[in-house]
Each structure stands twice: as structure tokens, then as C-alpha cells.
Amino acid sequence: MGVRKICGPKGCRASPRCDHPWWFDVMHDGRRWRMLVDDFALMRGATESVRSKQTAERVWEPKFMAELMARPDPRRERKPESTREVTVAEFLDRYYAEYVQAEGLKSIVTIQGQLKALKASLGQLPVVALEKPTDIARFKAEYRKGRTVATVNRALGTLRAAINWGRFQDPPLVATTPFHRFGVNIKVKDEIKRDRRVHRDEEQRLLAACLTMNTAEHTCSGPSLHDRLIGALETCCRQGEMLRIQNRHVDWSLHQIVIPAGNAKDAENGASRSTPRGGSRRS
């Protein structure tokens, strides 16, 4: 239980002497509750803003705790009407415009697709529904169909980031987060870890099968696939990188293939892959 200042994600050097207002930040019944001290005090007879921490702790904090124990949530009836009517879709649109686009995140296209899926399932609900795990668990079960655990976790991670962003707006759009030990969990350990290693005996069987399956019914096999597999195994190029290789990307004197930034997954220039004559293989 306490009174503190919330100066944003990076904090404030002058805190607690900065100009930011004081907040109630208390634990009650297993949940964390936050509210501006000024909002609480001015609605209950205060004539000016609360600037002193001692006044907030001695005068208003006991009243806040008393109301918190007497009713489900004393903050709801103090919120402006416009805040209560905000839907999840409007909240996510604002998060995308004011944070994702404003910060110029690298994965903006991926985040946009994840937000689209969230709005399709939760968009019509009021934004306060994001404070409880019930509807988010329903989205998690629906979105899981036909998708891997990692894909679901990334969408939930985007929703968690949006909720944390909404909690620090002025006024807060969301009071609490459902992502905690007793709420919605993102189980990273359930994700399947990829293993790119191919043992030598597996490599030989794979190449032999390409030469054996050289009939009309196996039109996608044969010597051409045999050569492509050798290139993939020796250079460790991804499928998209291999399909975009052009003759100008090959350094025949050094036996290397240069992958441009636009074709590489890490979007960095100068990523080179050695050919079979050029040296070591990556695993």
C-alpha cells in the first residue's frame, strides 16, 4: 500500500519533486489498484490539487482504502463518460497510431496483423473487459486453432504491451492488467524450438532419395532437386533467400553468395553464404 508518482516508462530525474501528480498504488484482494489522488480528492470535497505526499497518505489514502473495501471499484463511477464508452477496437487503433506508428517499430506490419485479429475477436467489447482474463482466454482458445503456440504468444504479447501502454496514459485507459500469475499466462516454454541441424547420414539418405525418385510421378524430385538441396545444405540459405539469388549476387572468384538486405531475414547487408568449394558449412 502506498502513494507514489508515475512519471512514465523512463522515470523522472527530479522525482519525487517533479510536477507529475501523485497516484494511489495499493494491493487489495490480490489485485493492484491505481488512481490519481487529485481525481479522488477533488470529487470528495478537496478545493485544490494534492501536492504533498504526507497529505495524500494521511488524509486521502485511508478514505480510498475504505471505499475500495466497501464497493467493487470506486474508480468506475469517477471515470469520464467518454472513457467508459471506449471499445477495444478504438483502444487498439489509438495504441497503433500513438505508439506503434509514432515510435516507428521495426515489426509494424506484424503488429498490425496481430491487432487485426484482436479486434476481430474483442473489438466490440468495452475496453474495461481487458482488465479481466475471461474474454482474453476465449480469444486465446479461438486464435489457437490452426496456429502454433508461438504465433498465439506473439499476439498475446502485443495485447499485453497495448494494455501496459494504456495504463500509463493520462487519464489511464485501463486500470489493471490481466497478465499475471493467476490470470492470463504466456507460456514461452511450450513453443517448439527449431533445430536446423541435419546429420550426415540423414543428408546422404535425402540426396539418394532425390536421385532414386526420378520418374514421371515424382516431377518435383530428380537431379534438379538434388542440386538445390546441396546448395541449401552447404550455404544454409533460407528458402526465400535462395529463390531471390541472382547471378550478380554470386562472387565466383571467392565462391561466395552475397545476400542483400532486402532478401535477408535480419535485413542486414553483407550476409554471405559460402559455396561447397568456398569453405565451412553452418549448422
What would you note in describing this structure?
- The chain is mainly alpha-helical and 283 residues long.
- It folds into three domains: 2-78, no CATH class; 81-190, DNA polymerase, domain 1; 200-274, no CATH class.
- 42% of the residues lie in helices and 10% in strands.
- The strands form two sheets. It has a three-stranded antiparallel sheet.
- Strand 2 (22-28) and strand 3 form a beta hairpin.
- Helix 4 runs antiparallel to helix 5, helix 5 crosses helix 7 (149-167) and helix 8 runs antiparallel to helix 9 (223-235).
CATH architecture of the largest domain: Orthogonal Bundle
Fourth-level CATH superfamily of the largest domain: Tyrosine recombinase, N-terminal domain
Rg over CA atoms, rounded to whole Å, is 28 Å
Sheet/helix structural class: mainly alpha
- Write down the secondary-structure element order: EEEHHHHHHHHHHEEE
Number of strands: 6
- Fraction of helical residues: 40-55%
* Uncertain ranges: 77-84, 277-283
**How many domains in all?**
3
**The biggest beta sheet, please?**
3 strands, antiparallel
N→C terminal distance: 53 Å
Alpha plus pi helix count: 10
Mean pLDDT: 79
CATH class of the largest domain: Mainly Alpha
Biggest β-sheet: strands ordered side by side in the sheet: 1-2-3
Approximately what portion of the residues adopt beta-strand conformation? 5-15%
Shape: elongated
